[in-house]
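Batch 3, record 17
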Amino acid sequence: MLTTRKRVVATAVMLAGSLLLTSCGDSDSGSSGDGKTLKLWHYEAPNSAMGLAWNEAIKEFKAKHPGVKVEFEEKGFEQIQKTAPMVLNSSDAPDVMEYNKGNATAGLLSKQGLLTDLSAEVTKRGWDKKLSASVRTTSVYDANGVMGSGKWYGVPNYAEYTMVFYNKDLFAKYKIPEPKTFDELTAAMDTFVKNKVTPLANGGAEYIAQQYLYQLALSKANRAWVDSYELYKGKTDFHDAAWTYAADTFADWVKKGYIGKTSSNVKAEETGVSFIQGKAPILFSGSWWYGRFVDEAKFDWGTFLWPESNLTLGSGGNLWVVPKGAKNKELAYDFIDITMSEKIQNLLGNKGGVPVAADTSAITDPKSKTLIDNFNTLSQRDGLAFYPDWPVPGFYDVLVSETQKLITGSEQPDGYLDALQEAYDKGVPKQ
Amino acid sequence: MTVTVERGVTSKQPHAGHPRRPRDSYALFLLPGVLAFLVVIIVPFLMNTGVSFTDWQGVGSPEWSGLANYRELLDDSEFWASFRHSLFMVVAMAAVPTAVGLVLAAALFDYVGKHFGSKTVAVLRACFYLPQVLPIAVAGIVWSWILAPDNGSLNELLKAIGLSSWQQDWLGDPDIALYSVMGVMVWVQLGFPLVIFMAGLQRVDPQLHEAAELDGAGWWRRFWHITLPQIRPEIYVVLTWCTIAALKVFGAVYVLTKGGPGGATNVPSYFSFTTFFEKTQVGYGAAISTVLTVMILLLSLIGLKLQTRAEEREGS
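Prediction for the assembled complex:
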């Protein structure tokens, strides 16, 4: 018989053990579903172009699948970004989920065997024929989780790219014509500086600043340079002509006052708001702002692609992925198919998104038409060059931190490029 | 078998010869706490320590890498810089609030209480304590507005009073950002020592102060020779508690600066977080958090030891 103390200890150990077993869960249950429920996660705001389109797709799915219940959970981008590997490794995985594309995200999960290989389904349903080559790049991953070749692990239904947003009213106020060339763009910025207006909306604490820098590099780069940097098809030298030009020009722009010296700790949201409030006349950023500017900007504004650059930041949008442990995969494929349908793609286009398979004649909104026309221009010239933080996990933080130093002047361009080189070389996959 | 029966009888008849020891009955009450501690603290800590010896990306099979992560940590300048920043945080969250909290508590207790009444003291105490109640995310966002470079309240205030030359990019200048975060943390932390010290002052025998006052001791001498020694236990508790809080500070840095600009405000917990989730170097992140936990444990033990020694000295 046990003494009271021993009984207490034994009970504690048993309880702790059972609690632990419960908390660990069955990580590989993957039991087949009943075909009656589609568990779906995405993180688009309900009033965004994508949110509206996906909600319409859910309605369409329900109409086509009477008796099937859609369990939709709205998640946050950060929430999915930070917890996806753990969730997908458990029995709580959804049937279909929106997920970020790139080597460090979808690539990593595919490499770890957490995503379903969609190759057969993609061919069967003809999704591959609807996606252009540059949009398709982020859907396929090789055995090392590197995008660009290999099996299909995700399907994007929209695309995104960066452009110059400009405040037409402010340009008119200072009698500045819309810049058509790079020189005209810098001349416009000079005029703003002379009038004590900081021309570029910038945010050093998040992605905005590093995207200016990458765009400057892209204006001196070509596809082979991008493939080398993003797909490891060659050695990336951060002291080459393109990167050196980018770092020198960026630092020079801070000195000239094109970029505010006090923008080092400004977040992306504040940057966008400064444009919406009419404080900054120019913002270089992505199509994800488009719908919001249409809604909230109270002045006349327009967009143009970065002058004299064949390449710009952009890619296929976030991916629909089917977790390996999904219980109702057929329903998941049906849902993806609906989001690729012309009806949903046209809706996405008319709400300020960049659809990948829309009928352009059905896009009636003039601003949306410009957005899509610009994308088609880019797509035709193979101009999507992805994002600077993609090649190496954790490179986003390095870029933020180092670019902040460039803004504050606590680092010179040469040292900046050294730091990028070191972090890149450390994180790039050894093949 | 005989032994078993005897023990069984004994346990059923606690008052027959062998009274049940109080410790046994207390153990039952401790059980939920022990279980929770085991499941929430000890097991995850051991698992984290185990992971720190692997090269793991958070999914798939971890590969045993021995002490590689710890060796890398020793040469990681970013890690050591984050620890240096932690020491600044100890100043901001433990040293300064304890010193200022002591003076404020004594002033509220001895002066404000006597001249303006206990209600005024209660209101002031609540005001000082308010930042402790506010979620750090809310406080951080408000402070980031106050400290904004272009139209932040602080810079606007400086301009309004003719001190435009004092305007700064408080959170964006790497030479100033850490001090700005420290300033916010002093504001956040001050209420805690103040409340503890005011509670401590309640138990100081007023006759000691009266006697000293009759002997001609001024406020400062009474504070130094009576108040301080009398509330020494509270000071130890506050210092230990606040130092631990400073070493694991995360929320404020996350909301105010995200470790920037250029890593100027990075601290170990934030560094560990980005290593875990941004770089997906789970093994390395686990090594950082293990080292951080061990350091916090050591500091806590040293604090407790010092406190015990001081109490023993006073007792003897």
